[in-house]
Amino acid sequence: MFLYNCDTIIFVKYWEDYITIEDLKTEHIHIGGEEFILESSPDVWMPHQPTFALIDALNSPDRINNALRDMRVLEIGVGTGIISMYLLRKGADYVAMTDINPAALATTYRNIHKNGFTNGDYQFAIAEVDRFMGIQERFDTIISNPPVQPSIIGVHEFDKAAKYNENGNGRVVLDSMIEYGKAYLNDGGRLITSCSSRHGHIQTQMNLDLYWGMGNWQEILKVEYPITPDYHGPYMQYWIDQQLRDRDLRVFQKDIKGNRYTSDKYTPGEQWYFDYIVIEAIKRQ
Fold first, then answer.
1. Which residue has better confidence, 149 or 262?
2. Pairing of the two strands 253-254 and 185-196
3. Cα separation values, 79 from 107, 142, 155, 183, Å
4. Using the 8-state DSSP alphabet, how is residue 166 labeled?
5. Total-model pTM
């Protein structure tokens, strides 16, 4: 188990317990004006388009100066560590990197070393944490790229990493960020979290209004992506059934004029889409 107190790693379980050297893949990632050497295992998602979009949303003068530089930052769901390493490169004073997946923590620990963050110039901690459980400090910024896949029996067998990306109805982590995030922020602090139409965006907007107040949050990025059959396919019918029940459009098709529509059944080979959104909410004094 990975443990931490406020400022230092105090115990790290040997990474060999969670990842196998022969399974590791190494890539050179260029993102947000930075370059990283990134290792990953089959139990950890490599960065993909939405990850890059979230970093693009962070890579603005306002957010670098007011949400990252010289700030204490908490990332929930660290994965390979790519976002937290970007935060450190952009001048974060301290980054707490958390995840429920021990393979992700082991991978992050390796990537932190590979990219030169252990030379004493950077302050960080790595912790095995489920959302906010056990966290007793406050931060200037909380960042998350939460999972969206719902728990469907047997589906995670198609990819080892998927079992850590499934949670209840797909909203468990996102709803925790929105409902409880304010309690772990200093006054004026920011929650920056991604979400997706696949979560049910009307419900997300209602929750933001309820827990943060209208006018205290905004969409800072919205991007449309095509469904990837191998990855999204097993969950498509679940999202379609959900949106037929609550009229909260999660996945959609488009006609020749670009108008969105949906049907009641997913057929492999059809082109479907979803929206990826980045939300910024501010804790007012």
1. 262
2. unpaired
3. 8, 15, 20, 24
4. B
5. 0.90
